[in-house]
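Reopening: structure tokens for the S-adenosylmethionine complex, inputs below.
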Amino acid sequence: MDGDQCKGVTPTAMVDTSSLHTPVFLERTIELLAPAISHEGAVVIDATLGMGGHSEALLTRFPRMTLVGLDRDPDALRLAGERLKPFGDRVHLVHTVYDRIEESLSGLGISTVSGILFDLGVSSLQLDRVERGFSYSKDAPLDMRMDMTSPLTAEKILAEYSEAELRRIFYEFGEEKLSPRYARKIVQAREVEPFTRSAQLVELIIAATPAAVQRAGHPAKRVFQALRIEVNSELSVLSAAIPAAVDALEVGGRMVVLSYQSLEDRIVKRVLQARAASTAPAGLPIELPEHRPELRLLVRGAEQASESEQISNPRAKPVRLRAVERLRTTK
Ligand SMILES: C[S@@+](CC[C@H](N)C(=O)[O-])C[C@H]1O[C@@H](n2cnc3c(N)ncnc32)[C@H](O)[C@@H]1O
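Re-run output (same inputs, fresh job):
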């Protein structure tokens, strides 16, 4: 149901959404968006609705704003839809991949928005549902789809990708130095028995990791990250989504992006910094209006959560926050 507009959806399972996910950087996100979203008629896109934690707080604090919540995971939309029901027609939920912001907005008759939030990555709900296969610490089917209606799974990748393709994704999306070794071992092992469970893959990676290799974290961490990114095309989607999001912001509109790993943050940083820079050719005596920066960076570099937030919410530890304000349109 890509692109479907769903309002007031009902949950299939009874889950207490408020206890599922402590929104990361909640107060800082509110503080950064506030100047842009307090006015009558403000529209905010939560591009990664998840359990609706950030959305609920925004709707509560800014009673004059309307929210457009996007998620590719139908389960998240159902549960957040239930949580946000008290806000009635101030909430519009759309099942879509977030690089389709423009289509989602035009489906609702909206052209530009006042605020946008991206809280990237996997939700606690997705991580906690063992059967989704995101975790290397629990045995589960090798699935890893954020959208259970999409066709590519981790099992399919491990069965069908060539050794060279596996090597590439482990290297590019997992920054895994042992990519050649793991790819070779996987291709050898699948001749004997196909990979269907995460425990099989974890076992192979542990056995293939030389004892002398010093690792930060679990040896399977990077391979699992790489598979998840490939299954969900996470980086290519993000590369398209950030420029599309900037285009959707009205002048004075603000955007906050929370990234959970350096590959995501690099993409976000590249786009935002480029559009926050003047494009005036060197040597031009005056800066023409069309060369002026389109964005203003609201934080210096990438901000990390305070020590106290990192202690109270361990999910906040790897997060890098970037925020911008739109200064002018390009049209
Ligand atoms: C970290 S959670 C968001 C949590 C949310 N801020 C909250 O307070 O509950 C990220 C959510 O984004 C969704 N997501 C990830 N990539 C997406 C994409 N490319 N398009 C749409 N949704 C995506 C995931 O399905 C997940 O539900």
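The chain has 13 helices and eight strands. The first helix runs from residue 26 to 37. Marking as resolved unless the reporter disagrees.
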